[in-house]
Amino acid sequence: MTELPPLRARWLQALAMASDAEAERFGQSFGVDDAQFELLRAPEVGLVMARGRAGGTGAAFNLGEVTVTRCAVRSSDDRVGIGWVQGRRPERARLIARLDALLQSAPSRAVDAAVAELEAALAGRRAATARKAAATRVEFFTLVRGED
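-> structure tokens emitted (148 positions)
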């Protein structure tokens, strides 16, 4: 299996993690609706095995199956785009695949800036979730009882 270029891997991850509104705005900014695409693999729903590690560093184990939707398209300039997204979301997988094909020929500075915005929005959502979880954190302590 070949490894994706770093910028392409970043935009695929950012698009998969973005909200629907963010992904739509991103697509509009790059003119995804104006481009022509051939459907290579229609959006299809399937399962992938999620793996985990105890404590983040322990031995790997199968955590469970996750529903994903995937799609593949070819652009008019013969670039193949792929889209994977968690859940049953065929339209979102199609949008990501179309954007992937389109972004491969876009200027890298423009793409990098747009992807950085998506990543910043994701970081903001993650920080808000972390703050909300931290507010409910309970600290336990043990009192040592003195024996006379």
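The chain has a mean pLDDT of 90.
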